[in-house]
Amino acid sequence: MAITETIGSATINGLAYIGGLARLAGSSVRTIFIEPIRGKKFHFGRAVHQAMAVGVEALPIVSLISFFIGTILALNAAYELRKFGAMQVVASAVAISMTRELGPLMTAVVVIGRSGSAFAAEIGTMKVNEEIDALETMALEPVDFLVAPKFLAMLLMVPCLTVWADFMGVLGGGVFGVSAASFTWGSYISATLDALQSRDITNGLIKAAMFGLVITAVGCQEGFSTGLGSEQVGRSTTSAVVKSIFMVVVVDLIFTAIFYLTAPR
To answer: What mean pLDDT is predicted for residues 229-240?
Structure first.
C-alpha cells in the first residue's frame, strides 16, 4: 500500500510541476507576443541584456567543447570505419551526429550550467530578500519583468549557439580528417555538404528552441519555489540543474521519436 501511495504521490507532484512549467511558459509567451499588441510595455532592454549573457558570453566555452566533441566523434568513427576501408564516411558521421543530436544537446548542457542555474539563483535570491514582493508592491508583475525577457533571450540565442556548435563540431572533425584520414579541406567540406539535408539542420534547431524554453521554465520555477534562507538558494540552483538536464533529455527523446516517425521513407 505504501508503494502505491508513493507512486501516486510522485505522479501527482510530477504532473503539478509540469503544469507549473506550462503556466509559466504560457504567461511569458502572452507577455512577449500578445501584450505588446494591446499596448502593454515589454522590457526589451532586459531581453537584450539576457541575450548577451546567454549567447555572446557563452561562445568561447561552446566553441571549445563543440570542437573537441567533433574531433572525438571523428576519432571514434575512424576507429571502426577503417576496418572496412570506409574512412571517407567519417565526414558524414560527424556532420549528421552534430547537427541532429550532439550540437543541440551539448549546447543545452552548457546553457544549463551557465544560465539555467543563474536564473534559479537570481530569482531565488530575490525571493529570499523579499525583492519579489517589492516588485509586486510597485505594480510590476514578476513574470513580466523577470521571466519573459529570459524566455525571449533563450528562444533566440540557444538555436544561434547550436548553429555555431554545429560549425565548430564539423571543424573539429575536419582537423582530424585532414591530418589523419587523407582528406583535403575541400573534399571534407564537400563530403559534409553531400551528407547533410535541410531537415537534419532544422530538426536540430527545433530541438534547440525547445531546450531553451525548458531550461528557462525550470530555472525560473525553481527560483520562485525557493524557501527562506540562503541555503535554500543553493538547493534551488542544484535542483534547477538536475531537473533541467532530465527534462532536456526527455524532450530530446520525444522530438527524436517524432522526427523518426515523420521522416520520409
So the answer is: 87
For residue 239, what are the CA distances in angstroms to 50, 124, 148, 222, 246? 21, 12, 21, 7, 11
Domain residue ranges of the chain, discontinuous segments joined by + = 44-262
pLDDT in tens, 82-114: 877 777 888 999 999 999 999 999 999 999 999
Which three cell numbers, joined as nine digits, stand for 169? 563540431
Instruction: Tell me what pLDDT residue 58 has.
Output: 93
